[in-house]
User: What shape does this take?
Amino acid sequence: MTYQSLLTELTTEAHERGLDWARSSASLTLSAEDQGMLEDIGRSLAQRAACMPFDPANNVEDWHAAEQHDKTLRDIRDAEMAEVHAAHALRQREDERARLGADPAPPQLPQWMTAGGTVLFAMAFAIGIFDWVHERLPDAYVAALACLVPSIALGAFVCRALTSAQSPADRKLGFVAGIGLAAATGLLRCAFSPDEWLVALAVTLIETMVVLFLHWHGDGLQARYRDWRALHEARATASQVLETARGQHRRAAERINELTEKSAAHLREVTRRSLLSEKGAEVEVAVVKAIVAAAHYGVAQNQGLRRGVSPAFREVVQ
Assistant: This one.
């Protein structure tokens, strides 16, 4: 804040007050009494702005303000130190998160393997029960449809259960259940077609091999999933810690800005009081001249309006 900016602010206010007086009174002349009254208003404006210099030694309020400013400066130093520590911690958290890398998608079997296992298991079961169903449903299309619906459901269930990465860690019981399903479907085929036991045995062997193959890949998938899950949780924890560090750094920076603005406001007030106290008489003269000049300008506008000349037209002519 400079003396010129303070003086401009006061003279602008005085100018507005002078114009307001002329417009509200609609005066066509500025009498000595009116000018004296305006000069008194100008002096009151200057005296309102006039103040004693900032003197903590002799003014209790200024002493308190100086003490508060000193505390603010100490708080700024502490906040800057806290911001430095927060920035250092933030960089460490960013490095830790960067070392963990991006979070990939969870491991899963290829779609062709899942679809192939489902189709093989479903078709083997459907072939085994087709003759028995066809005996009861003469329409071959309807019989095939009746076989495929439960077969696809069974194939999807077995394939999904054996290849799920989220299955229990102990997969022995699941493997035994898969072999049991293959054996049960084989017995079911023998019961439906006792004369074709060799076909039933062959299809059962196919199902058993499919179960073994899916179980083998399921074991590998589950191991990869456990590794992925551990890294995924580590990345999630690191991301949370990083966000916390960012929030702390942001709050530290906001605290510094708040304290810096508070200190700047105090310094502006000290500067304002010092400038106005040193040049009070000069300020009063400038403010009085501004309000009287504005009043003369307003009176001239009133005279122009009386003659039918608008202020806008007068400004264009000038």
